[in-house]
Design a protein that fits this description.
The complex is a heterodimer.
Chain A lengths: L1 H26 L8 H15 L26 H8 L12 H4 L11 H6 L2 E7 L9 E8 L6 H4 L2 H8 L12 E7 L4 E9 L6 E9 L3 H4 L3 H29 L15 H4 L1 H24 L11 H19 L5 H19 L4 E5 L3 H12 L19 H12 L7 H17 L3 H25 L6 H10 L3 H26 L3 H18 L11 H14 L1 H14 L4 H10 L8 H7 L3 H6 L21 H12 L10 E4 L7 E5 L5 H4 L9 E4 L9 E4 L3 H14 L5 E8 L4 E11 L7 H5 L10 E12 L2 E2 L4 H22 L5 H16 L6
Parallel strand pairs in A: 6-10, 6-11, 9-10
Antiparallel strand pairs in A: 1-2, 1-5, 3-4, 4-5, 7-8, 11-12, 12-13, 13-14
Helix pairs in contact in A: 1-2, 1-21, 2-11, 9-11, 12-14, 12-17, 12-31, 13-30, 16-17, 16-19, 17-23, 19-24, 30-31
Chain B lengths: L3 E9 L3 E10 L32 E8 L2 E6 L6 H14 L8 E6 L3 E11 L7 E10 L4 H10 L1 H26 L3 H10 L18 H5 L4 H21 L2
Antiparallel strand pairs in B: 1-2, 1-7, 2-4, 3-4, 5-6, 6-7
Helix pairs in contact in B: 3-4, 3-6
Function (chain B): Required for the nitrogen-regulated transport of amino acid permeases GAP1 and PUT4 from the Golgi to the cell surface.
GO biological process, one term (chain B): positive regulation of TORC1 signaling
GO molecular function (chain B): GTPase activator activity
Chain lengths: 828, 242
């Protein structure tokens, strides 16, 4: 069903790509290349291919502050708290102060997705004749919007006021960059003003984008500045060519002024114009959107014991279920990050860690484990929301607090499983079934860990007796017997797996996985991709030629995926030895409703409440507290807070105030979250830690993005983790120049666009860290780190297994082990 | 001496763009004496442009955060030309909108500047309003580094300025309402303030008023000094961590 859901998305996207591509190709012969309709189609195609947000989804403006990205729709609350530190992750907030002013800013954002597609490019030249009434000339005006909106309706003459400012001009001829909002609109204007060879005509390159992107402009400035510089070079190239042409034809004289307005750049330089527009559409705007709309991971402080608890449980869960006792996949991966990529990711901004998997749930769990080893971590206080405990359940809570997680009876876990299956069965929509399946998997994951650990022993009859004695209902007794049987069954299966210690047993288990993995593949794999344009074209063609057969395949897959089967498939992928609970269990659950309320699993991070959006952590609480403490607005007299120091011949008297900043305000916690994110439907070049679907398509995207990164760097690395094939590969790409480095001025201008003409060689080196269940050659330091990680995990396991350890002692020891992992260095 | 500066600027009816206060920091462990200013006659300033201290003999304010001196003065003897160039650009050369929204500009002469403009209603001013802006200046030729700092503290900086501007507006509103007896008419006047055009009509009966008088807060500039010091310290502090 996961494959169906992702395939539905892919099919829908493919259909749109095909349709819009068709529009584009049909329109091109009849109208100019840069008519708005055709360009809009291209924009949507490019953006749709790069981003995973649903296209053309209208959202009302009043929901803006609480709207979360659609990518989070399938994530349970527990997983949100693990990955993001909050259940509520809205889009990056535009500045709200405008709304506080009555009467101002009546325009509102009517559609998030539509606005973020639109942009406007304005190139304007201002002649030096101040007396001239019309001394501005529109060189280029380009808007991407099929639907009429406020961006297009603003006349260039109105925008000039904000592009150039007042007619008063400074005496210097300095190049200037500006970022500003336009009042009574939802636009942000980014402008570069420069002069050509110190003449007095100014040239402005302006980019209009929606205001919702304002918070991410500063972070994306290198990308925006690069585009502005590229466009500036292009325009200077036009002017230089024009001057040379005039000199050659003899029309040039010292008195004539070279102006852009004398050149029809659309007619004479269509190729360069297209490159400029495409660079913006395919790199700059998607980057702004990614930083604004894709939620980023929150790295908990290393002193937060609730987090450390959940993290270790996740590792134990992974090792028990995914790795097994022989394979060292996870410790090796953790060691690789601790000893190498933690430093590389911080120093080399283009390096990445990418997890390739067809299973979103598993990939997100691995992301949670790995992200805890990275920097920078949040160092502030975590707000814990107080939980209301009712009087009738306080006794149960008190009893639970005395029990350790390890001692949780299997009866409660099994009943929880049955409850989730019952809930998933009642859903008719297959998508909802998929959602519930994920919820079920996430909620069952941690409890089942305890069940599996208990699998080493025969179930304790004493616990069963205790459960029976607690309840006076006869129907509860019926629940116990099937649950005990189920527990015994899984116990026997697990023992069978562990007894057969031959490597072949795991190999035979792995042989089953390709069948399931193929089911989850979201898109057809492409053997070769030269560029993203080729990718789109090929995908569109395939979609068009085989639409009927793909529809039949989708139908057959849907029929095969019954509501009863979908939880089984998801569970089987993680717990292959667990059977599906039969229908009698479901019937029995209906007879014992009181038990369900008392057995809810208490997630340690449940009460974490962090105010944040996709990009940043809110600073409102910090500023409120600081303002009250520092400025003391309620105090009318501040005489007691300062004293007068006498002056001397150099300076007058000094009013010296107290420093009211204590440790809480001295060090501001992290605001801008690092660019790590969750499982995405497509690889995204702007994030350093992410997961995406496995397949040749994703790997091609990764390789292509590394090549694109080398346009501005000489070296880049990526760590690729393929969960399906159990690969860990360290891919390094290096650029070496060969031959003559002298370039013509033309090639210099189009430095970033004509890569093929540059004389250099790309060298790629792939190091296999872990492949086909075997560990590759490791350096001594990496091997030492692997041993350290394994020993740390074993110590933590013993820590959580020992029932006699005091809770506080266990927490402090767990924090110490976690801290040693986070601060491991090779010298140690 | 840090490259980051926070200024409070004012577009005076008579004198045009003016710096009211500038907050800078000096080297850690020093007294910051190079940033202190000597005595100057306050009569040469108009009321509107004056940094008004609660103690009349003082000309500088100073506080220490982690042994770093933060100093607020009427003008900066070190960056006088730079700040004048910045406020002329912000007030005269650009189309300034006093709506609490940020305006960012960068060039090699003036560095990176983030300007947030706001205005206060005052019937004694031309156009019935007085115009101010807070300016965060990063005196650096590296645009990328300046943008990186701005990006890392975006919510903090915008929110910090908003807090002080909201405080000034609120106490100004209280002072205005307290001064006049008819509450309904005053509220209507304040609300209509939003629709006043941008033209400043000449009227010789207008006179300058100080922010202290507009807000009826004798210690307003002390609060501004302490708040700017806190913002500066936080913004500078994190850059040193890595």
């Amino acid at each position: 069903m996961l494959g169906n859901l992702l395939r539905n998305k892919t099919s829908s996207s493919g259909f749109e790509k095909s349709s819009e591509h068709s529009d584009f190709s049909s329109v091109v012969p009849n109208v100019p290349v840069y008519c708005k309709a055709a360009s809009t189609g291209t924009t949507k195609t490019a953006a749709g291919a790069l981003l995973d947000t649903a296209v053309n989804v209208e959202k009302p403006s009043e929901m803006l502050s609480t709207t979360s990205p659609p990518i989070l729709d399938h994530i349970s609350d527990d997983l949100k708290l693990k990955l993001f530190g909050s259940r509520d992750i809205p889009y990056s907030r535009p500045i709200d102060t405008l709304q506080n002013n009555g009467g101002l800013g009546t325009d509102k954002i009517t559609s998030i997705n539509e606005k973020t597609y639109a942009f406007r490019i304005l190139i304007i030249e201002e002649a030096g004749q101040m007396a001239c009434r019309n001394n501005y000339r529109d060189i280029f005006d380009y808007t991407t919007s099929k639907i009429s909106n406020s961006m297009e309706q603003i006349r260039p003459s109105e925008l000039k006021e904000y592009i150039f400012g007042s007619p008063v001009r400074s005496s210097d001829l300095t190049q200037c960059d500006k970022i500003r909002t336009i009042p009574n609109s939802d636009l942000v204007l980014i402008t570069r003003i420069f002069y050509y060879t110190h003449q007095y005509n100014r040239i402005a390159i302006s980019l209009c984008i929606p205001r919702i992107l304002l918070p991410v402009v500063a972070e994306s400035w290198s990308s925006i500045s690069s585009w502005l510089t590229q466009t500036q070079k292009m325009l200077i190239g036009f002017l230089t060519k024009n001057r040379i042409m005039q000199e050659n034809t003899g029309n040039y004289s010292n008195n004539s002024v070279i102006k852009l307005s004398n050149i029809d750049i659309r007619t004479h330089y269509p190729k360069e114009i297209e490159i400029m527009v495409q660079t913006l559409q395919k790199r700059v705007i998607p980057g702004l959107r990614s930083m604004s709309e894709i939620p980023r991971l929150f790295l908990y402080p290393e002193t937060f014991k609730e987090f450390v608890h959940v993290w270790f449980k996740s590792i134990f869960n992974w090792i028990e279920i995914k790795d097994g006792p022989k394979l060292g996949f996870l410790p090796l991966l953790m060691a690789m990050i601790i000893s190498d990529y933690r430093h590389t990711i911080r120093e080399l901004k283009t390096s990445k860690i990418v997890i390739l998997s067809g299973n979103m749930v598993v990939a997100n769990k691995l992301l949670f484990i790995l992200s805890a080893l990275l920097e920078p971590k949040y160092k502030g206080q975590i707000t814990i929301r107080r939980e209301n405990i009712r009087s009738d359940s306080s006794a149960v809570s008190r009893n639970k607090s005395n029990n350790n997680f390890v001692d949780k009876p299997e009866t409660e876990l099994s009943t929880l499983t049955s409850t989730d299956n019952l809930l998933s069965r009642t859903e008719n929509n297959s998508n909802h079934n998929y959602n519930n399946s994920n919820v079920s998997s996430n909620s069952i994951g941690s409890p089942n860990f305890h069940s599996l650990r208990k699998g080493w022993q025969i179930p304790n009859r004493r616990n069963s007796n205790t459960s029976v004695s607690v309840s006076s209902s006869e129907s509860l007794a019926e629940v116990i017997q099937p649950s005990s049987f189920k527990s015994g069954s899984s116990s026997l299966h697990y023992l069978s797996s562990s007894i057969s210690s031959q490597p072949g047993s795991y190999g035979s288990w792995f042989n089953k996985r390709p069948t399931i993995s193929q089911f989850f593949q979201p898109s057809p794999s492409l053997k070769h991709n030269e560029s993203w344009e080729r990718l789109q074209t090929t995908a569109g063609n395939m979609q068009r030629t085989s639409s009927s057969s793909s529809l039949q395949q989708a139908t057959s897959r849907l029929s095969l995926t019954t509501p009863q089967q979908s939880p089984s498939i998801s569970e089987y992928d993680e717990y292959p030895w667990m059977g599906t609970p039969g229908s009698p269990n479901v019937g029995d659950v209906s007879h014992a409703p009181p038990l369900v309320k008392n057995i809810s699993y208490k997630f340690p991070l449940k009460n974490v409440e962090l105010k944040r959006d996709c990009q940043r952590i809110s600073q409102d609480d910090l500023l409120d507290e600081a303002f009250e403490r520092i400025c003391q607005p309620s105090l009318a007299d501040l005489n007691s807070t300062y004293e007068i120091f006498p002056g001397n011949s150099s300076y007058a008297d000094i009013l010296t105030t107290d420093s009211d900043i204590d440790d809480g305000l001295m060090n501001k916690p992290l605001e801008l979250l690092p660019k790590y994110t969750m499982y995405l439907t497509h690889f995204n070049n702007f994030f350093q830690l992410q997961a995406c679907p496995a397949g040749q398509e994703s790997e091609s995207r990764i390789t292509n993005s590394m090549k694109i990164d080398l346009l501005k760097a000489d070296y880049t690395r990526s760590l690729l983790v393929s969960l399906r094939s159990r690969d860990i590969r360290d891919v390094a790409l290096k650029r070496e120049f060969t031959g003559n480095n002298n370039n013509n001025s033309n090639q210099n201008i189009y430095d970033e666009n004509f890569v093929g003409k540059r004389k250099y060689v790309l060298k790629q080196k792939t190091r296999k860290i872990f492949s086909c269940g075997k560990i590759g050659k490791l350096s001594t330091s990496l091997e030492n780190c692997v041993n350290f990680v394994e020993n740390s995990i074993k110590s933590a396991m013993m820590l959580y297994d020992d029932n006699g350890i005091d809770s506080e002692l266990r927490d402090s020891e767990a924090l110490r082990i976690f801290s040693s992992l986070v601060h491991y260095c090779n010298a140690g | 001496m840090s490259s980051t500066v926070i200024s409070l600027a004012h577009f005076c009816d008579k004198h045009g763009p003016r710096i009211i206060s500038v907050t800078q920091s000096a080297e850690k462990g020093t007294l910051g004496e190079e940033l202190l200013v000597p005595d100057y006659p306050t009569e040469s300033y108009c009321e509107s442009c004056l940094l008004q201290f609660p103690e009349e003999s003082t000309r500088s304010m100073r506080c220490f955060i982690e042994d770093v001196p933060f100093i607020t003065t009427q003008y900066s003897s070190i960056r006088y030309q730079l700040l004048n160039s910045i406020i002329k650009r912000a007030f005269s050369e650009e189309t300034m909108i006093y709506d609490n929204m940020p305006f960012i500009f960068f060039d090699d002469l003036r560095g990176l500047n983030l300007v947030i403009g706001f205005k206060l209603y005052d019937e004694n001013a031309r156009g019935n309003e007085r115009r101010y802006c807070f300016i965060l200046t990063v005196d650096s030729r590296s645009h990328d580094d300046s943008m990186k700092m701005l990006s890392e503290h975006w919510n903090f900086i915008i929110g910090g300025f908003d807090k002080m501007i909201a405080y000034i507006k609120n106490i100004h509103k209280s002072e205005f309402l307290g001064k006049n007896k008819t509450v309904e008419n005053n509220l209507e006047t304040l609300n209509n303030n939003a629709f006043i055009g941008s033209y400043l009509r000449a009227n010789k009966s207008k006179f300058g008023r100080n922010l202290v008088s507009l807000t009826d807060d004798k210690f307003l500039f002390v609060r501004i000094h302490k708040w700017n010091s806190f913002l500066l310290h936080t913004v500078m502090n994190e850059n040193k961590l890595p």
